[in-house]
Design goal:
Blueprint lengths: L11 H4 L1 H6 L11 E8 L10 E6 L2 H13 L2 E5 L1 E6 L9 H5 L5 E4 L2 E12 L5 E18 L4 E7 L10 H19 L1 H7 L2 H4 L3 H7 L8 H8 L4 H17 L1
Parallel strand pairs: 1-3
Antiparallel strand pairs: 1-8, 2-7, 3-6, 4-5, 6-7, 7-8
Helix pairs in contact: 5-6, 5-10, 8-10
Length: about 250
């Protein structure tokens, strides 16, 4: 995890109904096909559409990115990283004030990520910011428009190939039953949510991402899930993974 931010809360923080509401889970429509997005690289962080992502931001360049993007009504993308492009100066003996005024490592990111509009929840006296980004969709980088002081990219929406997917409903029911068997014993609040009208009303696109907030995956695996091109593939992958885990 980058030292430039923290993502507080575990998987449970993502599936609570109020947080899904803040992500505009219902009414996901948009006419635009290409747009500019500010990019926030965070090693090991793969954000999914229709989730609210909390961030604790202290690097100067990313504090500026947040302020600029909010002022310009520009989306911010949170992207998992492939490698470090350049290392920051050693921070071993740096004071808190020095860390707040120096940029950290620079990364090459994966080309597909989730993005949405940010809300600044709190700005602390030392300049650190508590931010939440409501991820509205997946995007794919077309070209890089700006590198400094932070990266801005031109993107297109990364869409599924098929709108009609026979078999998705059946797999969805089977996956819900599996989760209910687990939740009934371990997480009663999750069981209530899985049985709620709100959960049942999700379309397959929304469901195929929301269901991943209940299960922990390694970032590289979750990145592959993010890049799958259909709801059926995403639901099938999770069901197959859970089926295999019960046999081990």
């Amino acid at each position: 995890m980058s030292s430039s931010c923290e993502t507080p809360g575990g998987p449970g923080a993502h599936w609570e109904a109020p947080q899904l509401d803040r992500c505009r889970l219902y009414g996901h429509t948009r006419a635009m096909k290409e747009l500019e997005i500010s990019l926030f690289p965070i090693p090991g962080s793969v954000s999914l559409p229709f989730t609210a992502v909390p961030l604790h931001v202290f690097e100067p360049r990313y504090r500026k990115m947040i302020k600029d993007s909010v002022a310009m009504k520009r989306r911010i993308g949170v992207a998992h990283t492939k490698r470090v492009v350049s290392r920051a100066k050693s921070q071993a003996e740096a004071t808190q004030e020095e860390r707040l005024n120096q940029n950290q490592d620079t990364y090459e990111t994966y080309p597909v990520f989730s993005a949405g509009f940010a809300e600044i929840l709190e700005t602390l006296p030392d300049g650190r910011m508590v931010v939440e980004i409501a991820m509205d969709s997946r995007y794919e980088i077309i070209e890089e428009l700006q590198q400094l002081p932070y990266k801005v990219v031109r993107c297109r929406e990364f869409e599924d190939d098929a709108a009609f997917e026979p078999g998705a409903e059946k797999l969805r029911e089977e996956l819900d039953q599996f989760l209910l068997r687990i939740a009934g014993v371990q997480v009663p609040a999750l069981k209530d949510y899985l049985l709620s009208p709100k959960w049942k009303s999700l379309n397959n696109l929304q469901y195929s991402f929301a269901v991943y907030t209940f299960v922990m995956f390694e970032p590289d695996v979750l990145q592959k899930v993010l890049e799958l091109k259909s709801s059926l593939e995403r639901i099938s992958f999770l069901k197959d993974t859970l089926d295999k885990s019960t046999l081990q």
